[in-house]
Amino acid sequence: MVQYSQTRFDASFAALSDATRRGVLEQLGRADASITELADKFHMTLTGMKKHVGVLEQAGLVTTQKIGRVRTCKLGRRRLEEEAAWIEKYRQLWAARFDALDKVIEELKQKEKADGLRKME
Amino acid sequence: MVLEKWSDKRTTVERTSDRELVVTRTFNGPARIVFEAWAKPELFKRWWVPKSAGMSLLSCDMDIRTGGHYRLEFGHPAFEQPMVFFGRYIEVTPPVRLIWTNDEGGEGAGAVTTVTFEERGADTLAVLRDLYPSKDALDEAIASESLGGFSEQFAQLDEVLVALGATK
Asked: Where are the domains positioned within chain A?
């Protein structure tokens, strides 16, 4: 079962509390866009838009990729889902290993106990 | 700060930063025994590769001491080539700490793994941290679907593990 912590939800809500950022998400839902395009669209400075995109990126709602000199933004949900699936797989790998490790530890404990008894005799 | 957390009753994974994953698990036994099971090759071999995955450990060279190297080769009927994992032990301090590098992707490109063992009564809490050199390195590992250093061929492990989970 995949569980998200409160922190990520908090970051998402904080990111969504701003009208411009909601607009950016809506825009990216239609098509990927560069920071420059988004700044133009929302009549903002590049620096201002970079900040907004940074907040969205921090919350995992948007991902950005720099190709050459252009930073392209896209909705981040798919990546988030992939990430969640990967981490769950990673967890299952460790869980499977550790279940096997339990058996090894149990055996070592039994052996130690038996050796201890033998010494006492 | 914990960004995200995945867990069942026993094994928990937390993404504690954009380049670190932390796995925690409690074992029923003293730290010295738990450590022994990690640090002795003949014991390590018995649990590191989940049998259910159909994988086998073809070779296992572990020179467990600070500065020593390790090299593991895995085989699977579906693989043409064995998968090789190697690195160096940065620190080996029985029975409290093990630190090693994962260098199969290039030196400095992989995560550094730190495992600590902490006794709690009759139990031992093991905390394993995979610290990637950068956010991009962890993102890349996720994007490539490689699993804890395993290659994308490991994707099939997925099905096996899902099946395992279903039978529990």
From this structure: 6-75, 77-121
Whether the CB-CB separation of A61 and A53 falls below 8 Å is answered with no
CA A66 to chain centroid: 19
Q: A74-103: per-residue pLDDT in tens? A: 887 666 677 788 888 888 889 889 999 999
Q: Give B95's Cβ-side CA count (13 Å radius).
A: 16
Q: Class assignment of domain A6-75?
A: mainly alpha
Question: Are A53 and A38 spatial neighbours (Cβ–Cβ below 8 Å)?
Answer: yes
- Which chain A positions have a beta carbon within 8 Å of B161's beta carbon? 89, 92-93, 96
Q: Is the pLDDT of residue A8 over 80?
A: no
Contact A90 B148 (CB under 8 A): yes
Specify whether the CB–CB gap between B46 and B55 falls below 8 A.
no
H/E run at residue A113? helix A77-120
Of A89, A100, A103, the CB nearest to B161: A89
Asked if B147's CB is within 8 angstroms of A89's CB, the reply is: yes
- Chain A partners within 8 Å of B21 (Cβ): 87, 90
What is the interface pTM, i.e. ipTM, of the complex? 0.81
Please give the interface size between A and B, counted as residue pairs whose CB atoms are below 8 Å apart. Answer: 113
Instruction: Calculate helix-pair angle for B31-39, A77-120, nearest 10 degrees.
Output: 110
